Amino acid sequence: MNENELNKERLNAVIADFTPISLQEMDSVKLLDRQDTKLVVRLEQLGGILESLSPDYFMLEVNHIRKNAYTSLYFDTPNWESYNEHHNGRKNRYKVRYRNYVSSDLSFFEIKFKTNKSRTVKTRIKKDDIGTSLGVEEVELLKTTTPLNPNNLVPAIWVYYTRLTLVSKDLRERVTVDLDIGFHKYGESKEKLISSPDLAIIEIKQERFNRKSAALCTLHREKIFPIRLSKYCLGVMSCYNGQIKRNGFKNKLLKIAKITNNDYYRSIADSYPVGYMV
């Protein structure tokens, strides 16, 4: 058995060791208005980190599944306003997407609003499935909750991943761990999926930032510190490599390359869009 297989076996054993929690039991920890802290770790580190967290957290289990699959379709304008606002560090910015929670067979249309107070506010409506165009309800929600013009939004990229969801035993905090992350352009076959290698994204979600969080303390001891880079932005850069600006993300991408020891992220950081002057 090679090292990757051993790491996967260890990770599966640690996941199985968590006390489970159901969707209904964790319903009080929706945290649709919250403070987020995002961190990046190498996959091989994850087993040890989760082992340290298991005494303090439950793990979500849906239909006997703990690694839950997610599919998202993000919308943006043809000139990438949502991506560029994130790239340029603008406050009060929005992301628009459909998301399917595969294991629980639930779909939502979701609007994520990052406020100038660094809070994340999520508004959503339940849907039967992922839409590839905006319906009447979605357009009304956008008009009543955002300054965005729904007529300017078009499907941009698909994002796929599996997620582990931890819930603190005091039911005040969620920690999500995203694995097996992949992207492809809207309109292209899933066979053209671009994987994001050697990477796990951890997000700690709290009503108010609490530096005494068991997850934050564990990660700090491991010298893992916050880094902000959304899966959507990473997906856009991966799918449209050489076609979109990324200079504002370059230092973050180089940090991820160092953390994961994978030159894939360095190659994205060092590429430039057509016509970009260096």
Backbone CA Rg: 19 Å
Largest sheet: 8 strands, antiparallel, barrel
Number of β-strand runs: 11
**Helix-residue proportion:** 25-40%
The strands making up the biggest β-sheet line up spatially as: 2-7-6-5-4-8-9-11
Number of domains: 1
> How is the CATH topology named?
Hypothetical Protein Pfu-838710-001
Q: What would you give as the CATH superfamily?
A: Hypothetical Protein Pfu-838710-001
Total helices: the number is: 8
- Give the distance, in angstroms, between the N- and C-terminal Cα atoms: 46 Å
How much beta, percentage-wise?
25-35%
Shape: globular
Order of helices and strands: HEEHEEHEEEHEEEEHHHH
List unreliable stretches of 5+ residues: none
The pLDDT mean sits at 91
CATH class: Mainly Beta
The CATH architecture designation is Beta Barrel
Content-based structural category: alpha+beta
Q: How would you describe the overall organization of this protein?
A:
With 278 residues, this protein is of the alpha+beta class. It has a single domain (3-270), classed as Hypothetical Protein Pfu-838710-001 (Beta Barrel). 28% of the residues lie in helices and 33% in strands. The protein contains eight helices and eleven strands. The protein has helices at 3-17, 43-53, 81-87, 136-145, 214-221, 231-239, 250-260, 263-270, and strands at 19-21, 33-42, 57-60, 68-76, 93-101, 106-114, 119-127, 154-168, 173-185, 194-195, 199-206. An eight-stranded antiparallel barrel has the order 2-7-6-5-4-8-9-11, surrounded by five helices. A hairpin with a 4-residue loop joins strand 8 and strand 9 (173-185). Helix 1 (3-17) runs parallel beside helix 2 and helix 7 packs antiparallel against helix 8 (263-270). The mean pLDDT is 91.
